[in-house]
Amino acid sequence: MEFALLTTATHESFLRQESDPIEKDRIKSQEIKLLCSRLVEIAESTVTTEGWRSAGLAAIQIGAPLRLFVVRVSQQNSFQIFINPQLEFLGEATDMRDESCLSIPHVTGKVSRHKRIRLTYTDENGNVRTVKCDGFVARVIQHENDHLNGILFTDKTTEAKRTSNF
Length: 166
Ligand SMILES: [Zn+2]
Fold this sequence. Notes:
This protein is of the alpha+beta class. The chain contains 3 helices and 8 strands.
């Protein structure tokens, strides 16, 4: 299958579906390896007209409704792969910041997210891992995790703004 970035302009109902978990014995398959490398490639190469780069991308955004996303966990590192993630909020603290999404071009809006989270996931080698994150990375993970449940950031913002007329 040819994977390419999908947007709400043409694929809203596709993007609204809930993604399926990836069975344990499929995680190290050639098919999932290929999907992961395309996901990283598309996340790294996509720059929007406003000059934004992607901080994360979910498999469903390139046409594979599976519970898998990639997130750039630090500026130095490349994208990290998260398979079958389980998200937990740590504490009650939230903050409100602008978000955007490669699948919803030219729109930004403020979204409230938990400041601290814990994520349990399987990596690309099939190992189950747990990480605690805060700040920007925690926000990106919550945004990508929403994609796996068919939720878009514009569902959570009260003031979506168009940044251009394209
Ligand atoms: Zn998004």
